[in-house]
Amino acid sequence: MFWRYLGAVACIAAGYADFPLIAFHFEKLALAPDRWIPMTYALAMGVDGLAALVFGRLFDRFGVSILALTSFLSAAFPFLVFGRSLPLALAGVALWGIGMGAQESILRSVVATMVSADRRATAYGIFNMGYGLAWFLGSLLMGILYDVTITGLVLFSAAIQFTAVPLLLRIRRELP
Q1: CA–CA separation, 7 vs 15, rounded Å?
Q2: Which pLDDT value is given to residue 124?
Q3: What is the DSSP string of the chain?
Q4: pTM of the predicted structure, to 2 decimals
Q5: Is 58 left (phi over 0), alpha (psi -120 to 50) or beta?
Q6: To the nearest whole percent, how much of the chain has pLDDT over 70?
Q7: Percent of the chain having pLDDT more than 90?
């Protein structure tokens, strides 16, 4: 089950655009004055903090289902942030923040529910390596896609994140 979970998390990580790429897009299209771009990151971090609190509490009550829900919600962010509309981009930034809050508060918590205490440190090491490697490779591909086709970037990002949802729902059914 751990390996299937790591596969689902790798899908989330690979499809999660780094905020610098989002900020680059905002600047390149002049969606907002340059001085406002850091404020979009501040918005994302504010949403991230609130989402971490809310989804952490919900995870304690409902388990992995909450991670599937947040993955579903945040997978919509690329359609909004890589467009040409500032209001939609800000909505996308909020969804990006929701996804970050969930990743920071509950992704690793799931590992503790499926790995025995005597193997947990190793599991966390493998988990973090897999997560980081997937994020790196996904970011590399999205950086290349940005120069070739933004539509391709958006479709890749959303599709691979959506792929995690059924995997997470299956894992939810298998957890004790």
Answers
A1: 12
A2: 95
A3: -HHHHHHHHHHHHHT---HHHHHHHHHHTTSS-GGGHHHHHHHHHHHHHHHHHHHHHHHHHHTHHHHHHHHHHHTTHHHHHTSS-HHHHHHHHHHHHHHHHHIIIIIHHHHHHHS-GGGHHHHHHHHHHHHHHHHHHHHHHHHHHHHH-HHHHHHHHHHHHHHHHHHHHHHHHH--
A4: 0.91
A5: alpha
A6: 99
A7: 87
The CA distance from 157 to 142, in Å, is 8
- Residue length of the chain: 176
**Contact at 8 Å (CB) between 7 and 125?**
no
List, in order of start, the domains of the chain with CATH numbers. Answer: 2-174 (1.20.1250.20)
Distance CA 1, CA 71 (A): 19
Radius of gyration of the chain (CA): 16
Report d(CA 145, CA 156) in Å as an integer: 9
- Measured CA to CA, the distance from residue 165 to residue 12 in angstroms comes to 9
Instruction: Kindly state the tokens that stand for 163.
Output: 């792929």
